[in-house]
Amino acid sequence: MLRFVLALLLLVIPAAAHSTEAGWALLRDGAHVVLLRHAMVSGNADPANFDLEKCSTQVNLSTRGKQQARKIGALFGARAAPIERVLSSRYCRSLDTARIAFREEPEPFAPLDLLKTDPSEKAAQIAATMTEIRGYSGSDILVMVTHLENIVALTGISPREGEVVIVEPQGDGLRVLGRVTF
């Protein structure tokens, strides 16, 4: 059993490293849209009475999350084309990830907030995000900092905290071009 687990790890680790390297290769070329799940947090869920305007009422970045955001920014600076624009969920953990990583004030973009539970509101959020992605035609990188649920709804992929998913429009949805893990 132990040999099986070790063999499995040896197969998975190079695959993750390969996908990260392939992702960086794409990002060097620019002209891509990046969905970035916010960095690591210190909690599991926002309290029922949280206030979007008050970070103290929300789940926020942990110390490791702040370090992860700095690493994301340093690696983007060293290995990717310039960042043209940064859009972010209005949640503090997303805004802080963007501020720390890219050292600029992100544009708050409500459709990147945690998905609403009402099906029509959720569909409107996804549609607005898709419109933004489809409308992007820059030569550098558009970064959209958001949450797990949003990325899953848009791509079917469940990224780790601080993971990048590189996408492009395809038909009615998105095609995943690559991923970068930190």
Short description:
The protein has 182 residues and is of the alpha/beta class. It has five helices and six strands, in the order H-E-H-E-H-E-H-E-H-E-E.
Number of strands: 6
What composes the largest sheet? 6 strands, mixed
Structural class: alpha/beta
Strand order of the largest sheet: 3-2-4-1-5-6
Question: What are the secondary-structure elements, in order, as H or E?
Answer: HEHEHEHEHEE
Which value, in Å, is the CA radius of gyration?
Answer: 16 Å
**The CATH topology:** Rossmann fold
Number of domains: 1
Shape: globular
Q: What is the average per-residue confidence, as pLDDT, rounded to a whole number?
A: 90
- The number of distinct helices, counting runs of at least 4 residues, comes to 5
The poorly predicted ranges are 4-18
Strand content: 15-25%
Q: For the record, what is the CATH homologous superfamily label?
A: Phosphoglycerate mutase-like
Q: How helix-rich are the residues, as a percent range?
A: 40-55%
CATH architecture descriptor name = 3-Layer(aba) Sandwich
The CATH class is identified as Alpha Beta
State the distance separating the first and last CA atoms. Answer: 29 Å
Protein name: Histidine phosphatase family protein
Keywords: Signal
InterPro entries: His_Pase_superF_clade-1 (IPR013078), His_PPase_superfam (IPR029033)
